[in-house]
Specification:
Order of helices and strands: HHHH
Protein name: DUF1778 domain-containing protein
Largest sheet: none
Distance between the termini: 41 Å
Shape: elongated
Structural class: mainly alpha
Organism: Sphingobium yanoikuyae (Sphingomonas yanoikuyae)
Number of helices: 4
GO biological process, one term: regulation of DNA-templated transcription
Pfam families: TacA1
Family: Belongs to the TacA antitoxin family.
Length: about 100
C-alpha cells in the first residue's frame, strides 16, 4: 500500500470562501512560497490530524496527572459501583 504522500490519485475538494479569506490564504501561501493548492492542502491535513488527535488523546495538566497517579497507586477496596460493573461484565462475557 502506498504512503499517503505518494498517492497517485487525488480527489477534488471544493469550498467557497469570502473574497477576504481567499485573499488572506493567497497571501499566506505566497509568504510560504507555496501554491494556493499546496498551502490549503497542508493546512487541511494539519487541521484534520489535530481534530483526530483531539478526539483520540486525553491530555491532563500536571495537577490532574498527579491526582490520577495517586489514585492509581492507592490500594482501595472496590466500591459498590465497581462491584456492580464487574458483575455486569461477568454476566455479559462469562468471564470473572
Amino acid at each position: 500500500m502506498a504512503a499517503r504522500s505518494q498517492e497517485r490519485r487525488s480527489e477534488r475538494l471544493e469550498v467557497r470562501v469570502p473574497p477576504s479569506l481567499h485573499n488572506r490564504v493567497s497571501q499566506a501561501a505566497a509568504l510560504r512560497g507555496q501554491t494556493l493548492a499546496a498551502f490549503v492542502t497542508a493546512a487541511v491535513q494539519d487541521a484534520a490530524q489535530r481534530a483526530i488527535e483531539d478526539a483520540e488523546v486525553t491530555r491532563l495538566n500536571r495537577n490532574d496527572f498527579a491526582a490520577l497517579v495517586r489514585a492509581l497507586d492507592t490500594e482501595a477496596e472496590p466500591n459498590h459501583a465497581l462491584r456492580a460493573a464487574a458483575a455486569r461484565h461477568s454476566a455479559i462475557t462469562g468471564h470473572a
